[in-house]
Write a structure and sequence with these properties.
about 350 residues; 8 helices; elongated
Length: about 350
C-alpha cells in the first residue's frame, strides 16, 4: 500500500510541477546571483517564433519574494529571425534602497517597445548579494505574468456557502433521526458511537461553511506568509500536500468501491469533502484557477462540495426510508401472526 501511495503521489507531484511551468516559447540561462554596479547577463533562446521580431529584456527589482518595485533597467532590443538562436543581454544593476532581488521580463515586440509586446515571460528571482557575480549560467524558471505573484482569494457570492451550510445541517438532522431509530435494528455500542460522531461531523462542517472559515483562514495564512516573506516557499509545500491527498484519496476510493457494502457512503463522502477543503487551502495557482472558475457566483469548488453534500443527504434519506419500510413490514408481520 505504501508503494502504491508513493507511485500515485509521485505521479501527481510530477504533474503539478508541469502545471507550474507554463512558459514554453522561450528559455533563459542566468547567473546564480547579481551584484549592484556589476552587469548581469541573461542568455535568452526563443524556442518558437512565427515571424521575425525584436526580442526585448527588461530588469525589475524587489525587496522581498512576493512583490515587485517595478522597472529597474533595460537592455537594447535584438532582432531575431531564427528559433533556437541564443542571444545575450547585458543589464546593469543600479543601487536601490532595500534591493534584494532582480528578475528579467522577456518579451517579443515587432517595434522593440513594450506597448506592442506579444509574448511575455518573467524569470524567477535572482538574489543580489555582495559577492562577485559569476559567469556560470544555469537554467532559470520562467512564469507567465499571472503566476509570478501568487494567488489571492477574491470575494465570492455568499449564497453557495449558505446553501452548503443548510445542506450539511439537513444531513446532520437526518443522521440524528437515523441514530434515534437504530435501537430497533440490533445496534451495538460501536455502531451508535459511529452515528454520534457522524452527526457531530456533519453539524461542524455545516457551521464551517456558514461561517466562511475556509476563506477566512486562507486569506490570513496567505497574508501572514507574505508579511513574513515565506510565501515563496509555498510551491514545495503545496505540491507535497496535494500529492499526498490525491494519492491517499485515490487509494481510499478503490478500497471503498471494493468494500462499499461495509463502508457507509456518508463516511466516504465526508472524507472526500475534508480532503477537498485541505486541497483548497493548499492548492497551487493552476488548481486555484480551476476550482475558482465562476459562473454567476457559483465556483467549481462549490459544485464539487454541493455534489458531496447532496450525496450524503440523499443516502441518509434513502436509508431512513428503508428502515421505516422494514419497521412497517415487521409490525405488519407481528399483527398477522397474532
Amino acid at each position: 500500500m505504501a508503494a502504491v501511495l508513493g507511485l500515485v503521489g509521485g505521479a501527481v507531484w510530477f504533474g503539478l510541477g508541469r502545471l507550474a511551468h507554463q512558459v514554453d516559447w522561450v528559455s533563459v540561462m542566468a547567473p546564480t546571483r547579481a551584484r549592484v554596479g556589476e552587469p548581469l547577463v541573461l542568455r535568452v533562446q526563443v524556442q518558437r517564433l512565427t515571424a521575425p521580431t525584436y526580442l526585448c529584456v527588461d530588469l525589475h527589482w524587489t525587496t522581498n519574494h512576493h512583490t515587485t518595485q517595478g522597472f529597474l533597467t533595460t537592455s537594447p532590443p535584438q532582432w531575431t529571425t531564427t528559433p533556437g538562436q541564443a542571444l545575450e543581454f547585458e543589464l546593469s544593476v543600479p543601487a536601490r534602497p532595500g534591493l534584494r532581488f532582480v528578475n528579467g521580463i522577456i518579451f517579443l515586440s515587432p517595434t522593440g517597445t513594450w506597448s506592442d509586446h506579444s509574448m511575455v515571460a518573467n524569470t524567477d528571482l535572482i538574489p543580489v548579494t555582495e559577492a562577485m557575480p559569476v559567469r556560470e549560467f544555469r537554467p532559470i524558471s520562467l512564469f507567465s505574468s499571472s503566476t509570478t505573484n501568487g494567488y489571492s482569494v477574491a470575494p465570492t457570492a455568499a449564497w453557495p456557502r449558505i446553501l452548503l451550510g443548510l445542506l450539511w445541517f439537513a444531513a446532520a438532522v437526518m443522521a440524528g433521526v437515523s441514530r434515534s431509530r437504530i435501537s430497533g435494528f440490533a445496534s451495538t455500542a460501536q455502531n451508535a458511537c459511529r452515528w454520534n460522531w457522524l452527526v457531530l461531523a456533519l453539524a461542524a462542517i455545516g457551521l464551517w461553511e456558514l461561517a466562511g472559515w475556509e476563506t477566512w483562514i486562507g486569506i490570513r495564512v496567505r497574508s501572514f506568509t507574505r508579511t513574513a516573506d515565506l510565501y515563496h516557499l509555498r510551491h514545495w509545500l503545496q505540491r507535497g500536500v496535494i500529492s499526498l491527498i490525491v494519492g491517499a484519496m485515490l487509494i481510499r476510493s478503490v478500497g471503498w468501491w471494493r468494500q462499499r457494502r461495509a463502508m457507509p457512503l456518508p463516511q466516504f463522502a465526508l472524507e472526500l469533502y475534508l480532503a477537498l477543503i485541505v486541497a483548497d487551502l493548499f492548492s497551487l495557482h493552476a488548481l486555484d484557477q480551476f476550482l475558482r472558475f465562476s459562473w454567476r457566483g457559483l465556483l467549481v469548488i462549490h459544485i464539487l462540495k454541493l455534489g458531496l453534500a447532496a450525496a450524503i443527504l440523499i443516502d441518509l434519506v434513502l436509508k431512513l426510508r428503508q428502515r421505516a419500510e422494514v419497521s412497517q413490514n415487521t409490525a405488519s408481520t407481528a399483527r398477522e401472526s397474532k
